[in-house]
Design a protein that fits this description.
GMP Synthetase, Chain A, domain 3, Luciferase, domain 3, 4-stranded parallel β-sheet, 9-stranded mixed β-sheet, Rossmann fold, about 500 residues, 16 helices
Length: about 500
């Protein structure tokens, strides 16, 4: 099977139904399919080994995604925010590619790559012009559908591969075909080069929910578009949700009464923030979705009713689940393992392993699956006795102080309980005595003086063991995050290198 089947089914079911809204243009499912076929014809006649996108979200993204699938070549959305040196390296790794987006930049950075380059407007116009041309009736292949470059830290980014079977396993296992009514609209504001952007397109089209694209996130633009299009569904990373809530709390004009469901993920969600969201939007169902690029997106969910039950409960065990990512999908297995790779009992921390048909665990460079199909996520966490999964940061982020493993998350939770602290990060810092020690960076709430270093140290000492008390403290105006809301701990560590 091939992911092009998703768009084909939607067009066969109701070709005239609006499937996509981008800026001032509205696309029916039939028009999207015809454009994808037109683009696939052009791609198939080229010698390109990949189809790449170097652009913000637009109609070019779904057209290119499905055109690549129809042509039987991988779709590679690239991060247009990367510096030129990094982007040059990635362009050379996919050469020759059929690339849509910033034509001048591509030609400047990789002139010898043999790429075929089209601006967004030219690509879309050409796809529509060829929409009614004859195309091959051969069944498209079921090999690699999408290639996403993971964010590199000290090493070059890995090329994560998602096969058609991986993506279809996730969509078919979590979405009911044609389940959305014509008035339902999904507001998509995540960038197209993130796995959430890919699966948002696939799941929305399979359910036949109208996609409303916001090219680049801005809270006021998001609120205005959600209001104008009567958005019923949305996905936001925690930093995006925080900015939307701040604007609503500040009195921004907003009619979000149609918003039935908000999924969030991609970064740490402070409990205080989701509690405020539940209070502000009591009729909206919130879902915490945990997943990775290599798992074709979501592998665990904390659903709307679980959010409401945890928020309303006085039982500390149930209430704590508001800080969890829920339970595994029915089609996915999750284990917590120790450093020797052995499963640990509930409540004990370890590395999260995942297994299921949607799990790829495959890179151009290697396959990371073990002999039994388990993928090591490199995320640390634990499960409670009822199977709720809690994250404790990246396994590589663990602070090893004198042989004792310390989770940054437990320190950050304590810091965020302080009434003046808006954001916090704990990282490993060099220590002559212990090898590594704790360093913290905190951000005070607007118009609030930050706590003293002694107050912060006493807070941690009184709530946790003395080994968690930080040796180094930085007070910042803001913590560094990427565009998907992931804390850039390596940037925080740099603060303590001197």
């Amino acid at each position: 099977m091939n992911i092009s089947l998703i768009l084909q089914m939607a067009a066969d079911s109701d070709a005239e139904r609006i499937g996509l809204v981008c800026e001032t243009r509205r696309w029916s499912y039939g028009a999207l399919l015809r454009a994808a076929r037109g683009a696939a014809l052009k791609i198939s006649k080229s010698t390109c080994s990949h189809v790449a996108l170097l652009d913000e979200s637009s109609e070019a993204a779904p057209i290119a995604l499905f055109a690549a699938a129809l042509a039987g070549v991988p779709y590679v959305p690239l991060n247009y925010r990367l510096p030129n040196t990094d982007l040059t390296a990635l362009l050379s790794r996919i050469a020759p590619a059929y690339i849509i987006g910033d034509a001048d930049r591509i030609r400047e950075l990789n002139p010898e790559g043999g790429h075929i380059v089209r601006t967004r407007a030219a690509f879309v116009a050409e796809a529509e012009r060829l929409a009614d041309a004859a195309i091959s009736t051969d069944e498209p292949g079921d090999g690699i559908a999408v290639q996403l470059f993971t964010s590199g830290t000290t090493a070059a980014p890995k090329a994560a591969l998602l096969r058609h079977g991986n993506l279809l396993s996730y969509i078919l296992g979590t979405v009911e075909f044609g389940s959305a009514s014509p008035e339902e609209a999904a507001l998509v504001s995540v960038p197209p080069y993130h796995i959430a952007g890919i699966t948002a397109l696939l799941s929305s089209i399979y359910s036949m929910r109208r996609i409303v694209l916001l090219p680049a996130f801005d809270p006021d633009d998001w609120i205005a578009l959600a209001t104008a299009e009567r958005a019923t569904n949305a996905f936001l990373v925690p930093t995006m949700l925080s900015r939307v809530i701040a604007r609503v709390d500040a009195g921004a004009a907003a009619d979000l009464s149609a918003l039935r469901a908000v999924a969030y993920g991609g970064g740490r969600m402070p409990v205080e923030l989701i509690e405020r969201a539940l209070e502000l939007f009591p009729e909206t169902g919130f879902t915490n979705a945990y997943g990775l690029t290599e798992t074709s997106s979501t592998v665990a969910l904390l659903g709307p009713e679980e959010h409401r039950a945890a928020h309303a409960s006085s039982d500390p065990v149930i209430r704590a689940r508001l800080g969890s990512v829920g339970r595994p999908l029915p089609t996915v297995e999750i284990e917590i393992r120790d450093e020797e790779g052995k499963p640990v009992p509930p409540g004990e921390r370890g590395e999260i392993y995942v297994r299921g048909d949607q799990v790829s665990g495959e890179y151009r460079e290697r396959c990371a699956l073990d002999a039994k199909g388990w993928f090591p996520t490199r995320d640390a966490g634990w499960m409670d006795p009822e199977g709720y999964l809690f994250l404790a940061g990246r396994a590589d982020d663990v602070i090893v102080r004198g042989g004792e493993n310390i989770s940054p998350g437990e320190i950050e939770d304590v810091l965020l309980s302080h009434p003046v602290i808006a954001d916090a990060a704990a990282v490993a810092v060099p220590s002559t005595e212990w090898g590594e020690a704790v360093g913290i960076a905190v951000v005070a709430k607007p118009n609030q003086p930050p706590p003293s270093e002694d107050e912060l140290r006493n807070l941690i000492r009184n709530r946790l063991r003395s080994s968690r008390v930080p040796e180094r403290i930085a007070i910042l105006d803001a913590l560094p995050y990427n565009e998907m809301g992931k804390l850039l701990r390596r940037e925080v560590r740099k603060l303590f290198q001197s």
